[in-house]
Amino acid sequence: MTARNKKAMIIVYGDCGRSPRMCYHARSFLEHSYSVDFVAFNESDVPQYLSGNPNFRLIPVKKFLSVTNITFPFNYILMPFKLILQFLHLLFLLFHFTNGTSLILVQNPPSIPVLLVLALFKCFVRTFLIIDWHNTGTSILKLKFGNNVIVKLSDIYERTLSKFADAHLTVTKAMKKFLESEYGIKNPIIVAYDRPPNLFKALNENERNETLFNFLSKHNNELLSLFFNEDKYLLHERPLLIITSTSWTIDERFDILSKSLELLERRIDDLNSNPVVFLITGKGPLKSYFLNQVNALHLKRVHVLTAWLSFDEYPKVMASCDLGLSLHESSSGKDLPMKVLDMFGSGLPTCALNFEALNELVKHDVNGLVFHTAEEFVDQVCHFLDTPADLKRLAKGAKSISDWKTNWDENVFSFIQNVPKIANYQ
User: Fold this and answer.
1) Which residue ranges make up each domain of the chain?
2) Which CATH code fits 205-401?
3) Gene Ontology cellular component (predicted)?
4) What is the CATH class of 3-195+405-423?
5) Which of 40, 201, 320, 387 fits as disulfide partner to 208, beta carbons 3.0 to 4.6 Å?
């Protein structure tokens, strides 16, 4: 492929700064001398490794009026008009900015109206379309609406329009099998596991202590005395620090965490063990609801700290923690929580809520522990409080996972290189 037509467009009908997998795709394309147009909402800071590259361009998507807070029946009346505006706006962006684009990579979900726009676009413009399946849009709608007519129409929509794609990426083998058997997809499907990018790495003791001290000084000065003495040395008897990242959506089981906090408070009192601090990073709609639940518990030995971290700060803070936590409950059972990859890249063992495809990532008692209930998770935390050496043993398993660049080059880029059809598009 010549330099002239090595141009890729990445479409995320969401916020660029909160779409790490798609940002990593963009970075990998840039490393292989592509120019990249990134179509997304511009709400959070774009990672420096993208914004600082002259071959990267963010194309902002206009965000139309949210109808979620509008009362029935007006929300249903306004929804079709919103979808029409989204459809027309995205279609305009595609026709306006795709000159010379040889490949389009789109995140799914959301599938509405994105897949319809791309199917129509391909009827007029020659381009190679790849769908990156993080989940199915239908399964997410099912969480909210059950099995009503909206979900059934969405299923028909998604399985029909996905066939317009020339190839597909999936985050698990389970998702690949589902697309082949349930959606009847015949075009190539490549399993591209999430892997931690190189910015996630373990820190040495001095780096960890410095990062943790600076973080607590900035976000919660009251907790400093639990971790550090007056000379800024980390205390031997200090809290266990557990981190989880979230977008605060309904596929995260914060009800399990709420119950765990209450149970753990009692267990720590009974065992007279060190406190536990939960650090929760991210933004999203259910954050205030959860924090209201936490405040009602009046916790004393268990602490909850929430923070929004920059792309530069997040990997270092994660590597300064003791244990990762994943509360992700896949709506389809076939995607994987990317936060666990970040944790593994940082050398953190992880306790993860179990579901169908999780064993493709978390190996119980090898790189983390799997739980089903709040009671099981609390037992695991108490075990680590009593036997901290097990954290070090599981950390070795977490560190053994391959990095993003190696995985992407071997799976995604090797496929793209071997598709002559792509080189014919411009």
Assistant:
1) 3-195+405-423, 205-401
2) 3.40.50.2000
3) cytoplasmic side of endoplasmic reticulum membrane
4) alpha beta
5) 320
